[in-house]
Predict the 3D structure of the following.
Amino acid sequence: MASDNVTIEDSEDLMTKLKNKVDKVIVSGSQQLLNTLPREKLAWMLQRMCEIRYFEEKAEDLYVRGLVHGTMHLSIGQEAGSVGSIATLKPEDLIIHHHRGHGHTIAKGANLTTMFAEFLGKEAGYCRGRGGSMHIADISGGNLGATGVVGGGIPTAVGIALALQMRRSEQILLSYFGDGASNEGEFHESLNMASIWKLPVVFICDNNQYGMSMNVKKAMNIENISTRASSYGIPGKTVDGNDVLAVYEAVMAAGEYARSGKGPSLIDCLSYRWRGHSKSDRNLYRTPQEIDEWKHKCPIRRFKQVLLDAAVMTGDEVEAIDQAAKVAIDRAAEEALTFPEPSPENMEDEVYAL
Amino acid sequence: MATEVIMPKVDMVMETGTFVEWLKKENEQVSKGEPLFVITTDKAAIEVEAPADGILAGVTAKADDIIPITEVIGYILAPGEALPAKAAPQNVAAAAAPSLAKIATIMEPVAVAAEAAEPGKLRVTPIARHLAKELGSDLKQITGRGPRGRIHKADVLAFQKPQPSVEPQRGPVPAPTLVISATPKLPARAVSSPSIQLPDARRKQVIPLAGARKIISERMVYSAFTAPHINLSLRVDMTEAVRLREKVLEPLKAQTGQRVSYTAILARAVAFVLPRHPTLNASLSDGNLILWDDIHLGIATNVEENLIVPVIREAQSKSLGQIVTVLADLTERARNQHLMPAEMSGSTFTISNLGMYGVETFNAIINPPESAILAVGKMVDTPVAYEGQIVLRSLMELTACADHRISDGATVARFLADLKNVLENPYLLI
Amino acid sequence: MSTETKRELTYLEAVREAMVQEMRLDKEVFLIGEDVGIYGGAFGVSKGMIEEFGPERVRDTPISEAAIAGAATGAALMGMRPIMEIMFMDFLTISMNQLVNAAAKMRFMFGGKCSIPMVIRAPSGSGTGAAAQHSQSLEAWFVNVPGIKVVAPSSPYDAKGLLTAAIRDNNPVLFMEHKLLYRLKGPVPEESYCIPLQSAEVKREGRDLTIVAYSIMVPRAMEAAEKLAAEGIEVEVVDPRCLKPLDAETIIRSVSKTSRVLITHEAPLTGGFGGELAAVIAGSEAFDYLDAPIRRLAGLNVPIPYNRTLERAAVPQVEDIVAAARALALEGK
């Protein structure tokens, strides 16, 4: 297991290929970006990450209190992956993601109240209560939805990117999936198809080391998911998924690559989820020590430290951002709880577009 | 799979064998190799052995049957085995046979359930049912030509072809019909009975309640428990009616060839009087009270232990002579069981006479969908006060049993009084 | 239908013409599938199209039915109007996740905030010796998935009009083309026209019984009806054309008129669409007019065999329809 701030490199060959494909030389994230990114951007990133963390914790709290129907898939510990990648996007860029997607949705600029409303199954939710946690979409905000079928968003990503290309658009798409999804047939069909047409998509693996209970090392015969990129002749990179700036750097490069018409890339964000797969997970497949070890690599704590160490922000400013996030989440949840339920009438009329 | 017991070929040129007897009974345990049955061929009587262990079942051969060789005459069932199901009947011409075999598999298998849950329940297609109701035909009288006697539209139409009627029909005359199904719903009270033990007695015969008896039983229950019966009796002095009869006997016999019966006189009197008491010639249907214009008089008749009710149609417009003729005809054909279904149903009022058995007075059960029935007792020479003296007069007790939902006591009493008046002054019938 | 139309096209040509005319009208319509480009389509449906519209809009793909379905779904999500072609209906099994869990459901799951205007074209059916894995009719599966419409035209005229309607429809539409129908010739107007999806057609009027048939079973039923007419049995043939949404009214009206109905399809009997039709009829006012049980004549519950005789025996042929209809007409007579 890698230690805190070292980027996990792939094989030498891949490194060379990558260097040849992009203009900037990739250096371990933090220092460069701290100098080049505007302070507002960095603050934005920190706030989003805090919001995600507080959102997930609040969601958990609501669940424990019996207020949530079904189950949830929490991404506590993986905040850097979604925020670091989405921070690279222009407002008109698009994302498509998965069941552990609260983080992506918040990072893409979702209204927190509307998000809680969907989570609670309310009419005022993003999907009018019809989708729930696993299917949150903010279509007009460029968030083309989460899918509950592992890997199910990847072929659809091919189609979205195909449309972007056929329309000669400047937009790109980020397609998120988990480590388990990279073993689905659809993953391979889709990367292949995207690669032959050089579609403007970045495939991002939110690698939290586990499918449901199967460790990623047991689920495949290779060391790194990013190796699979070579099967399709596209760039592949493994990054420290808990280093928000490292993620930023890698996805920015891949995004430029896509935007320039060179096609897709595969980014493997190595991270870890603190909670079980879903609410029914008893965590029998991993040890408390392992969980603890990764908690020490908490992406938020690390980012705060990086900001302080680089004197980009003061302790008070950091604290203020954190608190603002907490307050926003609490308010949003409180408001969403008061919203009315949807009506079961005329559901069949909603299935087909006129 | 059940083991087949077949007529064996025991001779070289044998094509059939004659069955003599079973050596084991149905449901008896048999052992392989033990003698099971006896047959004769041209030459001799032969004992045939059982081909397997098990229970003998599904036996079809009986003494003197001539059976082709290899034909199955029974089965031996090992534990857990059952008799093979019979093949479904084929209704299609043999010419279509080759692809039929495929049709049988490619087409939806016709669900052949066990016998219908309620034996005797009618099989009727929806359109046939509607048509029968519209035409007022009694489905129970109609023969169905579909599988298992299913009644189709064509069967209802065929049934409706005009029968040779006693009186010319006056345009389309819908017989009175009610929405009474074959198995009427009974009030809860009638349905839940306490558990009653049958007596410990030897049985002479056990007859399943079916056919006409079953129908009568259902209708009686329906009538008794749906219509609250009110029964009013009075005694009619029939002396004048007797005299009338004596006087018209010969002339009417010359006219009609029949003897005037008291039933005919009663029928004439009732038909005369009833129009003045319309609620007694009525039916309740769908929440409406239908007062009938026609009086179709049912004359309850007993034929070989069965109650049938031949109907004198449009009695209100028939003279005594006409009634005599119709009644004689109906009665005779009833006895010979030559009555058409339409002639045995559709009455609006019924007269039941048990006087011939010596019964002086009784209450009858209204014949649904009617609203009243007249129970007639024996004419008895009775000493009564008449014009200040004790004389013997022929008295007959009439009981009018009416549906109290429709007619109150006074109404029924008025009818009886009216009837009494006419019978005691029969010249009013002119 | 225009009676002046003298021009005849094959079913296959009619399908092509619908696509071509729609693609000329709307730049956002495109065809995607295996071998649809220079090869002209596995059955020749898209012949000549890449020459007119170019390789972007007549787009060849690798053998990747899941990705093809995903590509169509995603493009439709973005507002384009893809027509995805799957070489054999049997292979829709590989596309199922995208079609069933994504395309069919996204509109509803996302609270009505998007729509998926895509067409899935697939050759279906048996009779070409293609055997078990290349001969299926899987329409019943899709009828049972809310969110997907299902169309099964039986004639060139219907094919062009219904495909045009399907392309213009704002929902996923499965368009079943029976392989044996490709060669069928029939009158087809030159101009573009739409047949509304939920409209059944009485192909032949009769009074003795109704046959409800779709796809390949329509021409077979029509032939059977001619034979039965010689015996004095007048058969009414009703073609639903669109299985979902279903024009139940036309069917119910017909059965109410004739009192007897035979439902026939090529797909296996058990769990087939005929059961849905039978229930619709039995639960309608047509029930009051029935003079015989509702009968189904469908494929055997077997995978389609290779041998020619076995293949023929596995699905209803003209003579089977004749026998079944005759038996039904004579029930109770």
Observations:
- The first helix of chain C runs from residue 11 to 25.
